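User: Batch of two.

Assistant: Item 1 of 2:
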Amino acid sequence: MSLTDDAPRSSAASGDDDMPDIIDVVMEMDDADHGSPPPLPAIANPSLPAHLEALAGRARDYIEAASSANTRRAYAADWKHFSSWCRRQGIEMFPPDPQVVGLYIAACASGTATGDKKPNTVSTIERRLSSLSWNCAQRGQPLDRKDRHIATVMAGVRNTHASPPRQKEAILPEDLIAMLETLDRGTLRGLRDRAMLLLGFAGGLRRSEIVGLDVGRDQTEIGRGWVEIFADKGLLVTLRGKTGWREVEIGRGSSDATCPVVALQTWLRLARIAHGPLFRRVAGQGRAVGVDRLNDQEVARLVKRAALAAGVRGDLSEGERAKKFAGHSLRAGLASSAEVDERYVQKQLGHASAEMTRRYQRRRDRFRINLTKASGL
């Protein structure tokens, strides 16, 4: 680690292996005025022969394909956050120093990092740490996350600030039906939103999976799956998810009004979509279909908007209700309401373990197995 002359020196910065009062150290560093920070060191890239430049470009495309667009955006934002913090402290970023990262973690946890108005949550800090590790590795200078200056501080942050996960409210079948009634069937936007809600619920799909679908196979380079409609049975959704390719079967509903297959067919027919992205932007007061694929944030906004309009969880204030619903509400709704063997729900959601599936089941009987009575008490 290298500090400028203006930067305060502490036991954490001078080579002492101990890190006493790390929060105080970070507070002191944040309060100091360091002037103009030194430029960040450039990352050297060896020049390639001309005949390999095209191959290098293809390699970069594969690197991008290794992670989702959301992950890349988060990693880029976290790297910018860390870079800005280092500049403010007058600290060089390379080579990556575990002590510096330990100080940064403490700054995030105490709410004194760059631009933070309040302490970061534990999950946010863990994501930032993952982002730092990934970015350092891409620059050929790996960060040792097991180093005690990082691992011990992170363990302390978890013990001090960790809280039970805040789960989104499950959209149950009766809620979904009420939400569908709030949509205008006389507009293409209403028909599109209807198909998105029903497909997302019945398939237990993530919001990125919903908007990543194409009409057919290999139709767009950024598509992450496609649909196949079978006349009598239903539709088959083929997805490229977090754990690889998987298939999701969505059967026909008990009535056309709540059938995801009918809703999708109606949208495709009236929107005149036969190729490319399945769900697209609609303009012109809900009557003109564009060519651009929807952003996954649109799914979260749709769920929230329709749930509020339908009065779901009307026992809560509007502010509390707004925080309860998001794209995951659809997945949680299927997991909570499908009265079938748990392994089928697990397969539909694409979970590697039954325990993960149970986290989505909001109204399962947690006391179905009573070990107290089973033990003889």
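Item 2 of 2:
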Amino acid sequence: MVAAASVVVAVGSVTGMMAAAGDGDGPDVARPQVTSSPLLEPLPAVPSPSPSVTGSPSPTAKASPKKKASPRPSASRTGRKPQAAPASTRLYLHPESQVLDWVRGNPDDPRREVIESRIADRPAAVWFADYSPDTVTSRVRAVTSGGAAQGRVPVVVPYAIPDRDCGGHSQGGAPGLDAYDGWIDRFAAGLGTGEVIVILEPDSIAQSECLSAGERADRFASLARAGRVLKEANPRARVYYDAGHSGWNAPAKQAGWLRQAGAASAASSDGVFSNVSNFHDTADEVAYDRAVLDALGGPPGLGAVIDTSRNGNGAPADGEWCDPAGRKLGRAPTLSTGESGIDAYLWVKLPGESDGCKGAPGTFTPSYAYDLAR
């Protein structure tokens, strides 16, 4: 997702509920719960006179192979009030994931200790990337109730918007916006009453330029509705909207779209998220998110969350997006960032789930996880 398109690979059921794939560890074992976190694949950065950070090329044959850069955004945030810290500073580690399956199934693997201590023991988001209205409520409830029982905050990712990825590798989702609205109603019914963070539809706003003006308006109306429904179902839910990342759209452009999608309304939004499944440096994302929030001009309580799962070395200079070499884990997930306006560093993409080069797309690949963690 360097300028990013979501690429969902439907690989089984529970987020991380697949046996590890790659490295000769045997066939996938699907279990009927939450889909594993999708592969989010980069698109080319969009040059603009407004501030943004260096982008990366598209992996597809149609896109230009050249990198496109533009100035970095200013980190200044004049006139914005600091947001109070969430009531809980503890994130929930869901006990079912691909990496945990691998750790449990490979007690004698020499890589196990590193992978377990640096990846498997860290909380990560749970993705709901399949359109399954009959079961989504119970599956969401299983995650949120688990967090509530421990007094911890789960992170959930609804990812079923129609025409996601604009017909690219992650095509799929609900058959239409009416069906999507119904799916969101059922998703919201599983949120419970405890604290929960919702990462609402990665790429749904940043990648919306492929849609016609009418299609974009309809999508944004559904996203605004989704935020309202989620927060009405659980007033303690914190809903964040798609801001892309620092190498993609200029802050003013992204903020304009976010405003249309309801991200500037306290009734539907707690702010924005960025860098999902990407590699951009945390400092760049902090500056970019602050610029987006300034341009958004919403209520003073809006904040941002950043995916730091694989950005420890920043984005590759050559713009490579598919399991690029030399990357490492980023900052540990936390709700206490010490940065004004930055509500959390999260692991939205589970480290070690391959983009499709070092292992099967969307499946946990021990060699890749070990390279990131050591």
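The first helix runs from residue 98 to 105.
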